[in-house]
Model the fold of this input.
Amino acid sequence: MSVQDTNEARTMGMIATAVVAAIAMVLAGGALVIAVSGGGPAGTDAAAGLDVAAPADAPSSVEVELSEFAISPGDLEVAAGGTLEVTNAGADEHDLAVVDHDLGTPMLGAGESASLSLEGLEPGTYELLCTVPGHDSAGMTGTLTVHGAGDEVVAAEPAVDDDAADDGHGDDHGDVEVGDAEDWDALDAAMAETIAEFPAETDGLGNQPLEPEEIRDDGTKVFRLVAETFDWELEPGNMVEAWGYNGQVPGPMIQVDVGDDVEVIVENELPMGTDVHWHGVRVPNDQDGVAPITQDLIESGDTFTYEFTAEEPAIGMYHPHHHGQMKLPNGMFGVFIIGETGEDFPLPAGDIGGREVPEDIEIAQEIPMVLNDAGAIGLSLNGKSFPATEPIVVEEDEWIVIHYYNEGLQIHPMHLHQMPQLVFAKDGFPLDAPQWEDTVNVAPGERYSVLVHASDPGVWVLHCHILTHAERHEGMFGMVTAMIVEET
Ligand SMILES: [Cu+2]
Done:
């Protein structure tokens, strides 16, 4: 069984209509998903009805720093007509926008600054966020209070109703608007609506197997990667400018056999120089892809050919090293596998922690799952945000392998409901003592390979358990998919 075979199998219309309907039902907790009136995200009309007091010392200019993933300070107080001096102190691109007011800074690269004039913004309280997908839910939100000069001090009605105040949580609901009963309904509706869309169709699919464009007489397999920028549909209707390879996020999947001679021709169509590092793959030093240490930068418009022998099995990946902090989050990563699971990567068998794993199990599907959390791609599984993530559809009693790859900037505890994951390899190295986990913590740069027995029919959610990587006020999003086990 190769990853390529299963990838092809996965992409060939494997989801029956009935299953899709079932997902909406099951994910929605059995409730029928009904068209919702007055839906939409809660709490976006923050300025309505607030007459904000003007402290004598409300400054006319305030400095704001953006970083991964915070707006600081998070509560800004500015005099009417004032200015925000915004600096991106982080490593990724960020911006600062006033929600629902068509007001914000341009996208700021690391270290860049911009002044945001608040001229014309009425006194009141406004929500702020970074508009890069996923960054708001990762923490980049804030509150802006604009103070009118000389206004009467009017105490705002506390927007907390009796029920909410008596629920034992006070008004400590994070940044959820507490009180207005319609807001709670809107939150319920938003969650149901987003879940009902799963699995949503979008253009573009990453991880497509890349065939060699040529196999030379001596057996050398020649692959071609084009580093380029392109439009990528992250979730339905949300197009982002991705940086990637061959128009895919993740880039095309390359799989070769142990002992193969490999050439990878890299055409650089990016607006800047680049290189390709073979992460977790044994290569000669001058093929390690770290410009300008091991090679010259591949300038924009130039081509470079990497050559190496695939000496050892690898659950590897490829990505730029040069300005990787910007290029990877924007989509420049791909899977590079040397060898075959079950042969080069032995599968555990026997009694493991009291659970029996049969000898010589057949792997029904082998799924690379690349995690990302920043840049243009944001919180995502294989380059897509829920509900556009691809479900894993299996039959009862089948065994599957998932290879998690973290190409992001944060750790992601990947939790599969019900069926434990047997971690059998770390970074492609077989573990002497495989272990069962229901939550597999994957740090940046790491790969974990897990074996799962589809023992229980149903729709079982698979998601990052940093909850803001999976849900936001607008509903479910980001690092969520499902394992759908069909009854046989
Ligand atoms: Cu996460």
The chain is about 10% helix and 40% strand.
